[in-house]
Amino acid sequence: MSDASDVTKAAVVTPIRVAIAVCLIAPFVAMLWVGSYAKTDPVFIGIPFFYWYQMLWVLLSTALTMTAYQLWQRDQRTRKAEAATSTDGGAQQ
Fold this sequence. Notes:
By secondary structure, the protein is mainly alpha-helical. The protein has a domain at 13-75. Helix content is 73%, strand content 0%. α2 (15-32) packs antiparallel against α3 (49-92). It holds the Pfam family DUF3311.
């Protein structure tokens, strides 16, 4: 019961999807690896490293999530365009 439409709908690992996964996983890894930032030095404008590092990741996480969203939108547009051309191309032959 497998036909060409089932194959095109299957999840495919592409470089864009790998980049999306890295963008979404990086903040979790950075925050769960507490030993990397559990210190007070260097101090930035009087704020210990432990605090400003976490606040920096709030901004970085926002940027990475926005990037992942943009990449996902581009990937979806590409898949729809490929599906449309493969459907049209099959009708012409």
